[in-house]
Amino acid sequence: MIPVIAIIGRPNTGKSTLFNKLVGKRVAIISKIAGTTRDRIYQFAEIGDYKALFVDTGGMQYGSKNNIENAVKDQAELAIKEADIIIFLVDGSLPSTSDDLTIAETLRKSNKDVILAANKSDSGKFAENLPEYYKLGFSEPVQISAIHGRGIGALEEKIIQILKSKKIKPCEETQSKNRVNIVIIGKPNTGKSSLVNALAGEKRTIVSEVPGTTRDSIDINLDYNDKNYTLIDTAGIRRPGKRRNFMEKLSVLRGLRSLERSDVAVLLLDGSEQISHQDTALAGQIAEEKKGLIIAVNKIDLFKSKEDEDKYLWSIKTNFEFLPWVPVVFISAKTKKNITQILNLASQIYAERHRQIPQKQLEDFLMDAILGHPSGMLTKKPFKSFVQTNINPPEFTIIARNPSQFNFSYRRYIENSLRKKFGFTGTAIKIIYKKG
Q1: Which of 51, 192, 242, 303 is the most exposed place for a label (fewest CB within 10 A)?
Q2: Same structural domain, 187 and 271
Q3: Would you say residue 192 has pLDDT above 60?
Q4: Cα gap 117→210, rounded to integer Å
């Protein structure tokens, strides 16, 4: 199970600074799941031998009549609901506030594992404020300075202790050999449940239906054309009512949580709606995690002509131009049209992710690539070696005398040339540049 760790607190306690410190980088805009800076931000990161999904949240304020501030509070409460571990961040340079006390009460009622952390504890005010923090009802706070990185190791140790107590297994290869793990991700009402049910009933024998490693998910094992698949179903969580936006973001979080266990993600779009920022952000997150990806357009039974399909395909190419290697399939979960293409594509992508390119072919490719794109910026012999260092996902390492001379355009040229020569359709690849 991939644990979810949420950072909660009132405004200006340093949550985003701590988030960036824990995940090891400033999270790029593509990892922001919705359209405003006040929304939660997700990022996978390793902590010890574990991998976790960290969630940054906006500051929680109570008693406000401001709709935006109340919406931020609702988002944070959603993160509390979904989290396995909560880091309750307070400002160690100040006494606790009424908002701190209210947040503490909310966290106690959640029955979640809570780590109290006091940021800015190097301000010299921590000792005199310590009695205030005990009033919050948790153990002594971990003293940290997020901006300077002090105390982060102690905080991570606390997290690891809780993960061990919850019997969560460290990162390991959990997938069965030759079984293609497929997660279907998308906004509510795109037809995820209908697609899963259609695939599970399409010329298959269900081996088992067992609880998945994420809440409200079901792993459906099936056989099709003598190949083994696991569908990770994260659908069916949308509830009727006025809180559509709330449930949509819940769907995103659960989908991302299941993403880590997959080989191939199917991003399901509703063909009756325009492509949204959230759709492209999800695709970017999948690519960033180096997974296989299929874009499936559902509800083509509502298309009136081939022209409608062509227009939608053009919209996909425009909105997802940063992912030219991703295959697109038009389906109808309702009529089952083209749905088995998803299984066939997933099988092909799985094979691409496990390809090992012979060393001689890589060396020949690199020589051709250099000759095909000479650049005055490069030294005479810019590369020393080029090797494949991993599969699933395919990973390549280039040893160069001066890696910094390869700008974004040249690196993109190398990746595009590699794909043109060897394929890797449907899967992200990783190219590492090292000095040597």
Answers
A1: 242
A2: yes
A3: yes
A4: 37
